[in-house]
Task: structure prediction
Amino acid sequence: TRRPPFLISVDRRGPTVADMAKAGMDGETSPKVGHAGEVTKEELRAAVQEILKDGSVNKANILLFLRDKHCKEVFSRFLESIQSMENLNCWLDTREYKTLSNEKKLAEEGKCIFEKYVTQESPHAVSISHQLRTEFEKANKARQYDQHTFLDLEQAAFLMLAHSNFVTFLNSEQFKDINEYLAKKKKKKRSKKKEM
Result:
């Protein structure tokens, strides 16, 4: 099987900032996810066809899945079944964190994100490098929180989603559900055109 172009070797401790830079994800921002209606079924079908045709997975394809309500629900159920929901939750929470502007709220939410996703004792801790974890521990100790505090954590969580979770998802029964969902939508549209 052909390896997706952006996937890189990540050790058990998780991706480093250098890993993410190699993957083309450093400093990259992405559109909002989870809002139904923002992506067309044609775009989803094209993404699925591209993935199935040559095995290539890219950030745009994953984002399309997360922007469609049904696809996001199916992917979420899959993540729960493999006990990896923390990667998606962390990514979404850190993306939301960047939108905060109130210093008090940044401090409160920053502490919550640190305790939930960074501390190793947390059941929701994401897999990140020791170097990155140490950087977050220093920021937490100094109570230094701003919109940029968790950019590396956001990218690390997304890299784990793409590198590990989404690739596994492609070979799952749940992914077959996505194909059926898209096929049904396509048939409905064709039947409507015939009536006209």
